[in-house]
């Protein structure tokens, strides 16, 4: 879902750009893109300025589904926050931004280098040892 969301926002991406965003290896993203193409969710095409590269974009069907999904999320969020004061909204936004930043930092630390907790998971999900209970 994260890959589809990223493509929705960026319009198109190379596999390397997607890998960087998803904190995955390029071969892992290539496998992911293969599955998304097979499912009719994304389309591969030649890069507009570099013949050596390809770009990945959402299919029209996937874009339509993502638009519908984001419309529902936006509507639900607006309804859930309509009773908040501007000051309360600011507090909620600041809190969510802090949580998002903390997740991003944690993911980066856990996937960094060969010793990162999830570095092996990127190559093979079965290779990640179970964490503490």
TrEMBL record:
InterPro entries: HTH_MarR-typ, MarR/SlyA-like. Transmembrane segments: none annotated. It comes from the Bacteria. This is MarR family transcriptional regulator. Residues 1-101 form the HTH marR-type domain. It holds the Pfam family MarR.
């Amino acid at each position: 879902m994260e890959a589809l969301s990223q493509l929705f926002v960026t319009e198109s991406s190379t596999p390397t750009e997607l890998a960087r965003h998803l904190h995955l290896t390029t071969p892992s993203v290539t496998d992911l893109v293969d599955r998304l193409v097979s499912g009719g969710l994304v389309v591969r095409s030649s890069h507009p300025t570099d013949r050596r590269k390809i770009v990945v974009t959402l299919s029209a069907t996937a874009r339509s589904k993502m638009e519908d999904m984001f419309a529902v999320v936006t509507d639900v969020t607006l309804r859930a926050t309509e009773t908040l004061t501007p000051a309360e909204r600011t507090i909620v936004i600041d809190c969510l931004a802090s949580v998002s930043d903390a997740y991003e930092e944690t993911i980066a630390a856990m996937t960094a280098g060969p010793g990162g907790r999830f570095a092996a998971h990127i190559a093979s999900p079965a290779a990640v040892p179970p964490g503490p209970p």
